[in-house]
Amino acid sequence: MAVISSAFGQVKLTDDDAKKFRNQVTYGKPKASAVKTASRGSAMFKEYQTSGKVTFKAKAKPGK
Q1: What are the DSSP calls for the chain, one per residue?
Q2: End-to-end CA distance of the chain
Q3: Dihedral over Cα of 50, 51, 54, 57: its sign
Q4: C-alpha pair distances (Å), 33 with each of 2, 5, 36, 43
Q5: What is the pLDDT of residues 2-52, one digit of tens each?
Q6: CB atoms near residue 59 (< 10 Å)
Q7: What was the pLDDT predicted at 51?
Q8: Is the pLDDT of residue 1 over 60?
Q9: ∠14-16-22 over CA atoms, to 5°?
Q10: How far apart are CA 26 and CA 41, in angstroms?
Q11: Rounded to 10 degrees, what is the CA torsion of 21, 22, 27, 30?
Q12: Do 3 and 13 touch, CB atoms closer than 8 A?
């Protein structure tokens, strides 16, 4: 395994890591929570584009 990075943020994966990453990008399925979060983010972005601001409420962590 080799991960090569630079000060400018470039990361290179080699050999098996590159194959695994490529397969994950091609065939991987996102988690339901990731889909929900992306949907909320898109809605907030659209609101920001139209009104110039976004309003939201922070929720307490479960169990607190």
Answers
A1: --EEE-TTS-EEE-HHHHHHHHHHHHH----HHHHHHHHHHHHHHHHHHHHS-------PPTT-
A2: 41
A3: negative
A4: 30, 29, 5, 15
A5: 666 677 777 778 888 888 888 888 898 989 999 999 999 999 999 999 999
A6: 6
A7: 94
A8: no
A9: 85
A10: 23
A11: 40
A12: yes
Chain position carrying tokens 């609101």: 47
Query: Phi then psi for 15, rounded to 5 degrees?
Result: 50, -125
Residue 9, token pair as written in the block: 């943020």
Supply 15's token pair.
């050999």
The two tokens of residue 2 are 């080799």
Match 């397969």 to its residue by tokens.
Answer: 23
